Amino acid sequence: MSDTVGASYFTRVEPNFQCSSYIISGFSDKAVRVWLNNQQCKIAAGWDGYFGRKHLHGSLGALEIFAWSASKLSNALTTTGHLGPSVNNESLELPLTTVTQFSFVRSWMESTNGPNAGFRFLGACASSPHAAKKDPVCTYGGLVFAYSKSLARMWRPLATGYGGVVCVPEAFGNGEHSQVEHGGKVVITVWSTVPIEPFHWVEPQNMCMHTKIP
How far apart are the C-alpha atoms of 15 and 187, rounded to whole Å? Predict the structure, then answer.
């Protein structure tokens, strides 16, 4: 089982070994879009690290999409901003006021132009920039995001490279809705959660004694 990602972290198109093996997804208030690599790549793969010599390969699988109504979730705080080279006095930080150790925090980059206008793409904690052009649309991208109890920090690819804060390369989805965008709307939502009490033993309140009769 694996989650989808919000952008092409690094586009590889060589089907024999170096391949982008993940699923890109984005959503709006009306639809969900997903993109698979159309260069004979896997939908999930692990070549090194934890897997060692036991490589993970997945070419087929079931896609499950879950959606929750905002009115059914716990209390949430949403803050927004804009990033991009055309934004005056661009700030890569947004204040947060309700984050605790029990909060659940997510960030999205919402496209404001092009074929995916209105669609949100999930932010990530890292990116893989590359100096070479590997795809006609974009080679890498995504919103990099980190937060503390009082502040959210964001990073975006520079417009001078081959990446974008929104990156759906031509190598995915047969090029349908492919897009690179260097700016857009940032959406950060903080949900409050209920802490789970640690496990502890409790003395029994009532006891039943049975006597064995010979």
Answer: 35
Whether residue 34 lies inside any domain: the answer is yes
In a domain, 200, yes or no: no
Rounded average pLDDT per 10-residue block, the chain, 214 residues: 68 60 86 83 59 58 79 80 94 88 88 95 80 85 90 92 91 91 94 67 64 50
pTM for this model (two decimals)? 0.77
Structural domain includes residue 57: yes
- Give residue 128's domain range: 23-191
Number of domain units in the chain: 1
Q: How many CB atoms lie within 10 A of CB 164?
A: 29
Q: Which residue has the tokens 């991208």?
A: 141
Per-residue DSSP letters for 85-153? TTSTT--SEEE-SS--TT-EEEEEEE--SGGGTT-EEE-BS-----SS--SSS-SEE--EEEE-SSEEE
